[in-house]
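I hope you will forgive my troubling you with a question about protein structure. The full record is reproduced below for your convenience:

——
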Amino acid sequence: MKLYTRTGDTGQTSVIGGRVDKDDLRIEAYGTIDELNSYVGLAAAYVDPARFGDLSDQLQQIQHELFDCGADLAYATEDEDRYKVREELSARLEVWMDQYQQETPPIEKFILPGRTQLAAALHVCRTVCRRAERRVVSLFRTKQGNAEVLIYLNRLSDYFFAASRVANYRLDQEDVEYIRSANVFGKSGK
């Protein structure tokens, strides 16, 4: 199999059920999810499985689920019977976040992205995930699709925030608070 097909040389690409321009909202949405998946792979490369076995496994699972998100968005017409992203994926992310929040100290203020390479990479994942979410919102404004993808991406960006905090915590690095931040997370920070 050749890696090049030449079918996209005129600025169009295939989706499930047809062809669209490469700058179509659908392509922007799942293309940004593909970009996110690459950043998740980069973050996973910084993971020490001995210290972060749970995170390592979760990131790999998330990468598979991001492919599922892209596949669900690639349908030119709705096909609910073939959708892969379901409510239980978002619910599982909530469980993981709750576990990480219990492990880390409370926060009251915004924190600066970074401190360790792993946390910084997870923050990049968080921000690219938010962009992917915005692209899906734009897509759904004009076309129908699997609403669970949008919910999953919203939950996933929060997961990356929780994971970045646990990465710093396990590496004995305190998060750096934004010095002009109000107490936005309440008194408990949990």
